From TrEMBL:
Phylogenetic placement of the source organism: Eukaryota, Viridiplantae, Streptophyta, Embryophyta, Tracheophyta
PANTHER family, sorted: FORMAMIDASE C869.04-RELATED
InterPro entries recorded: FmdA_AmdA, FormamaseFmdA
Protein name per Swiss-Prot or TrEMBL: Uncharacterized protein LOC101508598 isoform X2
NCBIfam families: FormamaseFmdA (NF045496)
GO molecular function: hydrolase activity, acting on carbon-nitrogen (but not peptide) bonds, in linear amides
Length: 452
């Protein structure tokens, strides 16, 4: 007998705001956010979701919506969903929740997405000291392929995946998060040498009641005020999974998530049509609305059996991800190397972040020789299926990071040759990405030897 149609657990109406949905969405992590549904292990179920901004970014000819976006709202998640076994017994703290991605994609009638860079004063990004202004490119989907009018001459298949999937934290784990992240935010600028090289601010996103949505909990009540003041933001990945942005987590993949509360309380969102390793522009995947069809299993006692705590408590664990068999088939790559030396020529010690930043800057400067603006390349490398690697982490003083770009996504040959760099007939600086002015006064980093 054919399997039944997946049960729709969280529906989305694209004509409605996140807070107007039949099952209200949430944008924080907290153990007391009420569940919106229950599923049994072995049951295939469907979860629909808005894009991470809840529809704030439009398919139009301006980046002003990116420049002014309210980042206190992110990310809108669907769930939480309570998981029980065939006997009706819920997942318990200490279990592992095995989540299989059976199917996924954009919501019908909404087959488009966007990639962007935030303004340096409102979010920033990996290279915000080089690109401090807001930019945006719109992508349209044709089956498995994406193309953008703002980045002509490029077309590639996407590895569609959820940027966020995770379980609810316990109160003990939530308190650990809030304590350590507050310490980074308060003291990090004085103690973390990387702050001189990586300029995204704030250093951490602490709990705030501003733009907080807690699903079924009514805003303004005493319960809402208490939970909103301590609920964790969804921006970084943590022990519960969350915003891991693993680009290969597509059809056939499995996620083994630690369970910290009864029922696991699974939530997901932030769908991506495609993403490059690192999601470097921050708003850096092809962001879209979408759906997941999932199937769960409960591995009783799995946390102790399979996850080794890397910290002072049994809660300091991390999920395991099993990548599925679906990915584009590329055979030729151009690989750019970076080492632990920053743009000023300063040596850093085995610093993979500095090395990766340099690899990305090398790639941007190189590809811009083929008729692209550097803003076009920055957005492209953030969302195309490029591969980032830490290639060396032991040969002091330089870490070695690499960024591999599939040659086939371009409509011209971008490999070095004896003759002059060719400019393809469709590759022109205009149309370019949509761009706003930068109105702040922070210094802009430049590489004195780079192409202008």
């Amino acid at each position: 007998m054919a399997p039944p149609t997946p049960k729709l657990v969280v529906p989305i109406d694209l004509k409605k705001k996140p807070w107007e949905q039949k099952l209200p969405l949430h944008n924080r992590w907290h153990p007391y956010i009420p569940t919106v549904g229950e599923v049994n292990t072995g049951e295939v179920f469907r979860v629909e979701m808005v894009d991470w901004t809840g529809g704030a970014i439009k398919d139009d000819n301006s980046a002003l919506d990116i420049k002014l976006v309210d980042l206190s709202t992110v990310h809108y998640l669907s769930g939480p969903i309570r998981i029980v076994d065939s006997d009706g017994i819920p997942a318990k703290p200490g279990d592992l929740l095995a989540v299989e991605i059976c199917n996924l994609g954009p919501l019908p009638g909404d087959e488009w997405g966007f990639t962007a860079t935030f303004d340096r004063e409102n979010g920033g990004g990996f290279l915000t000291d080089h690109f401090p202004y807001a930019t945006k490119a719109i992508w349209y989907f044709e089956g498995i392929y994406a193309h953008s009018p703002q980045i002509p001459g490029v077309r590639f298949p996407g590895i569609t995946h959820p940027g966020i999937i995770g379980t609810a934290p316990s109160m003990e784990l939530l308190n650990i998060w809030n304590k350590r992240e507050k310490d980074v935010e308060v003291n990090g600028i004085h103690s973390l040498k990387l702050c001189e090289v990586l300029h995204t601010r704030p250093l951490a996103n602490l709990p705030t009641t501003k733009s907080c949505f807690l699903g079924k909990i009514k805003k303004g009540t005493d319960e809402w005020e208490k939970i909103a003041s301590e609920a964790a933001r969804t921006i970084p990945g943590r022990e519960n999974g969350g915003n891991c942005d693993i680009k290969n987590l597509s059809r056939g993949s499995k996620i083994y998530l630690p369970v910290f509360v009864e029922g696991a309380n699974l939530s997901t969102g932030d769908m991506h049509f495609s993403q490059g390793d690192g999601e470097i522009s921050f708003c850096g995947a092809i962001e879209m609305s979408g759906f997941l069809e999932l199937k769960c299993d409960i591995i009783r006692g799995g946390m102790k059996e399979y996850l080794t705590p890397m910290g002072p408590t049994p809660l300091h664990v991390n999920p395991i991800f099993e990548i599925g068999p679906v990915e584009p088939r590329f055979s030729e790559w151009l690989v750019f190397e970076g080492i632990s030396v920053d743009e000023s020529g300063r040596q850093h010690y085995l610093d993979a972040s500095v090395a990766y930043k340099r690899a990305v800057l090398n790639a941007i400067d190189y590809i811009s020789k083929f008729g692209y603006s550097k803003e076009q390349v920055y957005l492209l490398l953030s969302c195309c299926p490029c591969e980032g690697r830490i290639s060396g982490i032991v040969d002091a003083p330089n870490a070695c990071a690499t960024l591999a770009i599939p040659i086939a996504i371009f409509d011209q040959d971008i490999r070095p040759k004896n003759n002059k760099v060719p400019i393809g007939p469709r590759i022109v600086k205009k149309p370019d990405v949509f761009k706003c002015t930068y109105d702040g006064n922070l210094p802009i980093t430049t590489n004195p030897s780079a192409t202008s």
